[in-house]
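[Q] Does anyone have a clean C-alpha cell version of this?
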Amino acid sequence: MSVVLTSVVSHLVLATAATALASGTMAQEACKLPGLGTAIVAGVRDGRTLLLVDGRELRLAAIEAHDASRAALNVLAAGRTLRLEKLGPEQDRYGRVLAIAYTDDAHESLQQVMLAQGEARVSARVGDRPCAELLLKTERAARAAVRGLWADPNFAPLPSHDISRIAAVRGQFALVEGKVLSVRENGATIYVNFGRRWAQDFAVIIPKRHRTSTRRNWKAAGSGCEAGWSSAAVP
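[A] Here you go.
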C-alpha cells in the first residue's frame, strides 16, 4: 500500500511541476514585444541604468531599483551583448533608451532576474498587461522568499486597515495588502475600496485612462479577493 501511495504522490508532484513549468512558459511567451536590436554594455550607471558602447544610455523599463542594486546589475550585464525589446516609448524625457533587455540568448529578461533576486520591484505602470503579470509574478515569488529588498522590514506589506501607518508613508513607496470590498466608478475615476467607510478607509484611486482591465474584471475584484498595490492612496 505504501509503495502504491508513494507512486501516486510522486506522479502528483511531477504533474504539478509540469503544470507550473507550462504556465511559466506560457506567461513568458505571452510577453512578446517588438525588437529594438542589440547593444553592448560598457558600464553600469545605477541600479537600472546601463551605459552602452555606442554612447547611449539604457534605462531598464518596467522596474524600479535603488543604487544599492548597482552591484547586482553589474554582475548580470557588464560587458554583455543585450537583445532589446520595446515596451512603451523608446526613450524617456532624458533621451535614454527604454527597453526590456535580455543577455545573449537568455530566456528571462534582466528585469525578471533583478526582480527574482529582490534587487528591484515592478513599476507602477508597465503598459503591457501580459508582461506586467509576468513581472508581478516574479516579484511576488521574491517577496514570499524574503529576498533582497524584501528582507528589509520597511518593505513589508502594510495591512489595508492600518490607516495611520499608510498615511505616514504618503508620497513614498509602500506596499499595501488587503481584501477589495468594492469597486466604484465616478466620472473619470475608479475607486477600489478596501473598507466600507467612504473617505475614511484605505482606497486606491485610478484614473480611467490608466485602466487595463475590463469592467467585468473590476467587478470580480470587488468580490473580496486579495490585492496589493505598490503605492499608497488614502482618501
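[Q] Thanks! Anything notable?
[A] The first helix runs from residue 2 to 30.
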